Amino acid sequence: RYDAQAVSNILNAFAKANVRDEELFEELSRVAMRLPMNSFSGQHVATILNAYTRVGIINEELFKHMSSLLRYWDRFGQLTPSRVAPQAVALILNAFARAKIEDIDLFERMARLVQLHLHSPLDGPLDLVPSSSLAAEVSQPSPQVDTGGTREAMSPQAVSNIVNACANGNFKAPQLLNTLERAIMAFDGRSMSLQHVSCIANGMVRLGQAPLPMLEHLTKLARNMSPSSPADPSGPLSLSLLANALCKSEVSDEESFRWIAKQAQRYEASAFSAQSVAMLANSFARAGRRDH
User: Rounded distance, CA 231 to CA 225, Å?
Assistant: First the structure.
């Protein structure tokens, strides 16, 4: 007899092995939709949805079912930070964005969950993302709710995934973006890579929430990081994304562009893709940095 843990484990194993077995994924979607809603954890939901997007099988019926499951939890006050961890929130949002399934109501509910994860009483009253759906039943905590006195430790990877899922889904709730911006400004570089910095910077620029102090903070973190291997393909792509973010936000930061140029020349030719070359060249040209 299958349970939610077994279904998520099997799907995750096949997705990680890049085995696209449509018949198996279809059967397990039917199994998942027959299971009791309260038998799932937030991680089960995230792992299942991520497995489908990872192998490129978009089962809209399953995605709608999981969206209904999350709304069911929210209706009874069970869509909480303790039930859905930061990385699970990120994976769920990213799965819907990658599957190109527009579900604004779900994004709003998950956005409120992100805010609860990141909120500290020191930030003042919590301004939650409102619901745009007249039919939405939302368990919104009062601003006086004690969230523990400290900000939840949300990893740079989770924040990066959430920012890019919102950018890909064109979800621009100002309350969420303000919360994310405060979290980004609190990063000190620990457990952070150049890839995290560039993805966050590029995503926030796409969302229209990239003030100069935040971009300066992110580029400062990047400049203080140890360089990766000259053969690492993620290095040139990350540098190109960061240059693109600075260019699009019209930040005139000579020091950062010089740093990016110097770092780019460290990498072997094989580490560059056509995309990273084109993006770097275009960003430097548009920013008027032709001397590099």
Answer: 17
Which tokens sit at 253?
């930061």
pLDDT digits (tens, 9 = 90+) for 235-271: 999 999 999 999 998 877 788 999 999 999 999 999 9
pLDDT tens-digit series, residues 167-191: 999 999 999 999 999 999 999 998 8
* Whole-number Å distance between alpha carbons of 115 and 175: 8
Q: Whole-model pTM?
A: 0.84
Dihedral sign (CA 220, 187, 131, 32)? positive
CA distances to 158, 175, 188, 253 from 277, in Å: 27, 36, 29, 20
Cα dihedral 177, 183, 185, 188, rounded to 10, equals: -150
Rounding to the nearest 10 degrees, give the CA dihedral for residues 229, 231, 234, 238.
Answer: 80
| pLDDT range class, residue 150, cuts 50, 70, 90 | very low
Q: Is the dihedral of CA 260, 243, 193, 153 positive or negative?
A: positive
Describe the crossing of helices 4-16 and 22-34 by its angle, rounded to 10 degrees: 160
Question: Per-residue DSSP letters for 155-202?
Answer: -HHHHHHHHHHHHHTT---HHHHHHHHHHHHH--STT--HHHHHHHHH
**Distance between CA atoms of 31 and 289, rounded to whole angstroms?**
56
